[in-house]
């Protein structure tokens, strides 16, 4: 009986574990379904998907600046050709300075008009035609970020916009390589063209840069994310532990004034009235004295002041006659005593000096040659 109950208990535990395993398997299946397999591409939209076409005609128009007129004139035949493949009509109005795109009866793709609208927007925002045509592809989108109203001060806005571009466009090039997007900074807008994930990252970097966060921090995180996405084991995990955390430092503090004015406490009562001379005399008792006594007192005060002034003047005059303090004399080094001198050593030095010959060494005459001896012999013969 005991054995049978134990077996039943084991079987119950196994049945209890089985739903958990089923849940884990279900979660894995869902995650596999949500992930897009590598190399998968959505099939293109053809006429067979919408053979009857569109019911209503829709159109979009956008204005362009005067400096883009010459470029649009030049590349307009290419724009018409690119939109003609999608059966969309495009018109350029140079008088009003506007571009209009509209659908035709042959248009079968309902999303093509939105792509054409984005194309003319990009052309108006100084994006070259070679890059702007890519918007007509299914896996490419665009984002025009308005940065003009994000910073009030114009000088600060120009500095931050230049920070986004970087020295010789290096920061913008790094952003393009990491996001696989084409980014164009022009005036008060930033035009981005590329895949959806890349556009999301570009918008974040641009917004942070205009909020005074340097783009190099976001570029660093993008580089780490790119390396982590290559690893199949880490692809489905949380990357928070790998990404750097940059703390915002406020180094510039507001300068405090040297003299701080302390506000007095508010009182509803007015300040006390200052005492007059009569009140002061009444308080000290001088008011009741005679005029002759008052005069004597005033004269005594004047004499005391005069005596103080005379003593001060006399002290200033006497300062010129006070001799200055003399500097202490430098202690001279004492000459060495005779007992410390080594007389024997000095005598030896004098002897050595006498033996040495001063001046240049004596010139030794060279030995006489055969020619000179023959000449001497001839001279003696002639004399004889």
Automatic annotation (TrEMBL):
Residues 1-28, 250-282, 314-339, 352-384 are annotated as: Disordered. Gene3D superfamilies: K Homology domain, type 1. Residues 250-262, 375-384 have a biased composition (Basic residues). It comes from the Eukaryota. It is found in: Nucleus, Nucleolus. Residues 314-329 have a biased composition (Basic and acidic residues). Residues 141-211 form the K Homology domain. PANTHER family: HIV-1 REV BINDING PROTEIN 2, 3 (PTHR12581), KRR1 SMALL SUBUNIT PROCESSOME COMPONENT HOMOLOG (PTHR12581:SF0). This is KRR1 small subunit processome component. It comes from Poecilia formosa.
């Amino acid at each position: 009986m005991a054995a049978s109950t134990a077996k039943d208990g084991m079987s119950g535990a196994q049945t209890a574990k089985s739903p958990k395993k089923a849940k884990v398997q279900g979660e894995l299946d869902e995650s596999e379904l949500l992930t897009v397999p590598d190399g998968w591409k959505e099939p293109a939209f053809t006429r067979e998907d919408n053979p009857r076409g569109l019911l209503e005609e829709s159109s979009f128009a956008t204005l362009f600046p005067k400096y883009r007129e010459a470029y649009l004139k030049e590349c307009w035949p290419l724009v018409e050709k690119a939109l003609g493949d999608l059966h969309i009509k495009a018109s350029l109005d140079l008088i009003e300075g506007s571009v209009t795109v509209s659908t035709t009866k042959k248009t079968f793709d309902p999303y093509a008009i939105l792509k054409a609208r984005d194309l003319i927007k990009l052309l108006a925002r100084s994006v070259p035609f070679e890059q702007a045509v890519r918007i007509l592809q299914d896996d490419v989108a665009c984002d025009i970020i308005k940065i003009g109203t994000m910073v009030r001060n114009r000088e600060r806005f120009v500095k931050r916009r230049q920070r986004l571009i970087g020295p010789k466009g290096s920061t913008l090039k790094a952003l393009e390589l990491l996001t696989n997007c084409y980014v164009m900074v022009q005036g008060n807008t930033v035009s981005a063209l590329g895949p959806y994930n890349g556009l999301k990252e570009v918008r974040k970097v641009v917004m942070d840069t205009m909020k005074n966060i340097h783009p190099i921090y976001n570029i660093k995180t993008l580089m780490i994310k790119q390396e982590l996405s290559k690893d199949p084991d880490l692809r489905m995990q949380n990357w928070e532990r790998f990404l750097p955390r940059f703390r915002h430092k406020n180094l510039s503090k507001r300068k405090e004034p040297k003299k701080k004015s302390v506000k007095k406490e508010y009182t509803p009562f007015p300040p006390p009235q200052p005492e007059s001379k009569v009140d002061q005399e009444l308080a000290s008792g001088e008011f009741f004295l005679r005029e002759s006594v008052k005069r004597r007192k005033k004269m005594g005060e004047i004499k005391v002041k005069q005596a103080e002034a005379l003593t001060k003047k006399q002290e200033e005059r006497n300062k010129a006659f006070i001799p200055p303090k003399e500097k202490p004399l430098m202690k001279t080094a004492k000459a060495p005593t005779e007992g410390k001198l080594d007389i024997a050593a000095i005598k030896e030095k004098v002897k050595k000096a006498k033996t040495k010959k001063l001046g240049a060494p004596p010139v030794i005459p060279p030995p006489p040659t055969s020619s000179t001896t023959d000449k001497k012999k001839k001279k003696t013969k002639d004399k004889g």
